[in-house]
Amino acid sequence: MNRMTNRQVWCDDIQPIENLCFEPVERSYMNVVVIRIIIVYILLMACALLIPLMWEQWLPMLIVDCVLAVAFVVNVALAHKIYNFKGYALRERDISYRTGIFFTSVTTIPFSKIQQVSLRMNLVSRIFKLYYVDVVNGSQSASNLLTIPGLTLENAERLKSLLINKADCDND
Questions:
Q1: CB 51 within 8 A of CB 118
Q2: pLDDT tens per residue across span 5-17
């Protein structure tokens, strides 16, 4: 007798993550990333100006600023690669989000575990009219929040309503 449990039936129709077609975030999200990088490096270079005040030497400040300038160029170049790796995929029973350039990670949340879906903007993303979709799941782990950045209002609203509807259907 070949009896299959609900878990086996559910697991048999799941695609491997490698086969998923991830929907990319908006292209203008790169601008948000670059502006955030610029702000961070301006603050770091301003902090480097404090070195002469502490040690009364200018050479360490120049070295730190040169290292920061090289790191800035590398980070801005990598910002363009970030776009290619960020994306989300919707399946029948869950949502997956992929991120990471060197260490790619994919976070998957079943619709039945979703407790809250919200939209937000920050100061930099507001300039480009991009939204973040925050999905809160019911886990007690530190990764109970999934954030999908860089979506237009239409895409963010569509994704939010779809997730809420799917979560309601799965919880009934």
A1: no
A2: 444 444 445 556 6
